[in-house]
Batch of 2 targets.
Target 1
Amino acid sequence: MSQRLISRSPDLQRLQNEGYEVSITGGKLLIGHVPFRNAAGEVDYGILVSDLQLQAADTTAQPTDHVARFIGGVPHSTDGGRLNRLIIDESPQQVAEGLTTACTFSQKPLGGVPYTDYYEKMTTYLGLIQAPALALDPNATAITHPVVLDEDEESVFNYIDTASSRAGIGVVTEKLKVGKVAIVGLGGSGSYILDFLAKTPVAEIHLYDKDGFYQHNAFRSPGAPSVADLERKLTKVEHFAQLYAGMRKGIVPHEGFIDETNVDELREMSFVFIAADSGRAKKLISSKLIEFGIPFIDVGMGLWERDGRIGGNVRTTTGTSTKNDHLQRRISSGGEADGDDVYAQNIQIAELNALNAAFAVIKWKQLVDFYADDEHEYNSTYVVGGNTVIRDEQAA
């Protein structure tokens, strides 16, 4: 109830987005870790409390009074006396189980009109209470950016996606709530695809790879694994499933590659990212996904070394049941480039892996109408040497 009310109330959401310790207990709005000057002339911390008026659909109404209370002590002014301009009563009052206030405040808004909302009310009081504390310690603040757990049992996240709420794109982000998405291949590009997808509300992310997570993988994948992590000798799907379990639910590891024996598992997916190295696997998977009617994106690189420098291309190819006539000429059944392929040697190219993954996830977000898509291209190629992107294979 508490977090649902906050997320549905713009004034409370704004307080939370700005990093205040917002909570609701017993019908009271609380903001914790509020710095104040105590009787000893030191910075102390307390809790600001306000009655909470609600309306239908679990949202806040406009505050009906200008009274607030304080837990943790009696705030003092810069001259050492009590903050008499605010305090109207120092009688202890129990506002909820285990919460007893030390004093009561009264501060009418400018002009005598009611406070517009709880953001205005609480920040007005915060400014007045904190000012004497800031004179003692300029770093004293009520903004702590606490971790906010997600109380929604249907959410995939272990804590609230405050990034979307801060940016005001919660409604747009709802478009990313698709069912099951698969990533075939967890090498450099596949692991970065996972990193980006893990931060979206996709219900399930299925990982397919049977290789181990070795030392060279640490240099072209997200994170910074320790020696102890490498010595565990986990498979890639185990390593990454455990890594992202701290942030979200729904990471499903499959220890094996996709081949003729298990390709039918992809029928359950709403979308598939193909980041496999094998050209044969790419051909099998892409043809089956077209048969199943499941859209997909295939990623790949073709790199070369000349005169001590690395050049080449980063490719992102989209296929659907209605647009797939380009796949045979875009997705190679062998290596991604003629001649020596530096990529196959597992050298450190983390930035190109991440770029390839970013292009793929951006395209997927365009397909679900999260991002604008003016070109509707089904193939794009980033040229390293020219720092350019070539877009082609537009849909008719």
Note: The chain is about 25% helix and 25% strand.
Target 2
Amino acid sequence: MHLYAFGSVCRGEIDRDSDIDLLALVSRHDDRLDPARYSIYSYNKMKSMWKKGNPFAWHLSAESRLLYSDDGCDFLESLGRPAPYSNCLSDCRRFYGVYLEAISSLDGDMSSTVFDLSALFLSTRNIATCFALGVLGQMLFSRHAALMLPPEFRLPISEDCYRILERARILCTRSKGENITADEARLARSECESIRQWMKILTERAETHGRIQ
């Protein structure tokens, strides 16, 4: 077994909304590991992600710290650098699709507002991360990745809207924080078209980038 910390605690990007991301690598099921606390992967799955240049592999390569090793070795370090990331366009299209589905759900069923706003945030952050890695060659794994892109690609929404989406994500994943009010949900919904256009631009740029590689 190998245990790692990764994410904001390893970046030094800690604030009141931060948690500690933990990774467990195992060869078989282990009852000691709580899936609510750990991201759990087999060694073979992690090797496969490394060979495919998966963004999570790049994330771990750049921002993970070994906490425990039952063989005295750092398994992730032994894998070397991940392969080049080659699925940028398909991943951007996938997260764009997730975004559109969340918008459709938000408009049709107010009972799932927090979940839908959380999905909007997740797709926004992930498309920014994939675009940065695949097109710009930058590793941006922060939850603020969409705001850390170069000015011409930065997410063009208000700080208030971004914070609402971020709060929804934290509420959905950790059940922590203030509830989203109806007025806040309406504010977030009012800026969704700007986000959609931004995603469309990133996806089209990823497509152009892929053609010239």
Note: The first helix runs from residue 8 to 11.
